[in-house]
Amino acid sequence: MTNANTSGAHLRWHIMAALTVALIGLAAAPGRSETQEVQDIIRRYVKARHTVNLRGRMLSVQPTANGVRTCSRRIVRRSDGRSLSVFETPAQERGAAIADDGTWLIRYDPRDRVVRKKRSFQGVDARSVERNVRLILRNYAVRREPDETVAGRNCRRLLLEPSRPRNLTVRLWIDAGTGVEMRRDEQDAAGNTISIMMYTSVEFPRTISLSEVTPAIPRGARTVNISRSGLMTTGSEISKTARFPVRFPLALPWGYEFDRGTVVEIAGRRSGFLRYTDGLSEITIIQSRSSPGGDPSMRAARVIPRLYGEVEVDYALDDLQIVVVGRGEARELIAMAETISGARETAWRSAMARTFNSRATAVGPMRDRGLSAEAIVALLTIAERAGPSPTVLLASYQAGWGWRDIARRWRVPEADINRRLQTMVGGK
């Protein structure tokens, strides 16, 4: 009798345990499903940037010290990546056109009848899409909010809060049917709205003719092509075409990584053009040789506010004239520019050689691909602790995996890396 009671008790216990596990699974499933759903929305959003047929009108709003600045544009996009944007307001910009065919970006200004042409930075291949998705999910906590309607379209509303509070907070309204960004609001670290961009009308036709994305440029307009190279992914390639050593910054604002670069020529001077991204926002660095006869030891910085929350920093450092343009705090962009220093680079590389010995041979190739001092120290520490080759780790990093993701994969404690960072780059 006792055995029967005991067996019955065990059976009831197992049944209750199974039910509990099932209930826990059901309760947890929505969380897992919601996370995956958010990732799918972001992936579709990134792909849709250049792969959807669209006609529409967009309104941009920027609060300023003197009121509100607005701009309206007519936008046409094709699923092959070609696009045309024509300004309708304000009056001083009416008729200006920007066209992008995936290879060239041109802007026509009717006021001076000049077509300015440079390389397009579109990235629509599968590798670029996945890297961009990883950057967004790594640098922002993405939370789904209640759906809303924009321009008559049902939209998934997402709040993207930065991993570091000094970066922008972004709210996106993404079309449920196509993945297209229908509205975008941006706030600075203090919670102030710095820009709103939204479609006021939109349609998604089955086909769009090539003529619809070709700007109407009058005969006799002058074309100025400032590009002197294609898109490149290494500093050595950029430097060779620029005809002077283009240098990468040792430190970057949180979450940003080097994307690609090119070489342009303005007023007879060649410049290295470097683009960085955190998945949602971009920072551009333009470097050129200082004018002959200038004081090479002079350092100076000038900060110029630009439209839609952007800041321009003009900086003279050693033998370079540097311009940094991006959203965020001017002091972060200045700090970034200050690390484009040949002397600092030399001193840091010497310290790396003393610390990592033979593994320090990987520093050159990693720097040539634009990695920051923080990223390189972290990756070489992982190689030292877990044994993978720096080449393998570099490939993972360039695919959009952060060093923290890579450290978890190789089971290297983040605390170990942070201690090394405190010594080698001052910590993060």
- Topology, number of strands: 18
Order of strands across the biggest sheet? Answer: 7-8-9-10-11-1-2-3-4-5-6-12
Rg (CA only): 25 Å
Inertia-based shape: globular
- Termini separation comes to 67 Å
- CATH topology name of the largest domain: outer membrane lipoprotein receptor (LolB), chain A
Portion of residues within helices: 25-40%
Q: How would you name the CATH homologous superfamily of the largest domain?
A: Lipoprotein localisation LolA/LolB/LppX
- Identify the CATH architecture of the largest domain: Clam
Report the sheet-strand fraction.
Answer: 25-35%
What is the total domain count?
3
Q: Given the structure, what is the number of helices? A: 10
Output the structural class: alpha+beta
The run of helices and strands is HEEEEEEHEEEEEEHEEEEEEHHHHHHH
Largest sheet: 12 strands, mixed
Query: Mean pLDDT, as a whole number?
Result: 88
CATH class of the largest domain: Mainly Beta
Report on the structure:
The structure is a single chain. By secondary structure, this protein is an alpha+beta fold. It has three domains: 54-213, Lipoprotein localisation LolA/LolB/LppX (outer membrane lipoprotein receptor (LolB), chain A, Clam), CATH 2.50.20; 226-340, Phosphorylase Kinase, domain 1 (2-Layer Sandwich); 343-424, no CATH class. Helices cover 33% and strands 34% of the residues. It contains ten helices and 18 strands. It has helices at 2-48, 126-139, 235-242, 330-338, 342-356, 363-368, 373-386, 390-398, 403-409, 414-424, and strands spanning 54-64, 67-77, 83-89, 97-100, 104-109, 114-119, 140-150, 153-162, 169-175, 181-187, 193-203, 222-225, 257-266, 269-277, 282-289, 300-305, 310-317, 320-327. The strands form two sheets. Strands 7-8-9-10-11-1-2-3-4-5-6-12 form a twelve-stranded mixed β-sheet. Strand 4 (97-100) and strand 5 (104-109) form a beta hairpin. Helix 7 (373-386) packs parallel to helix 9. It is globular. The chain starts with a helix and ends with a helix. The model is unreliable at 1-30 (pLDDT under 50).
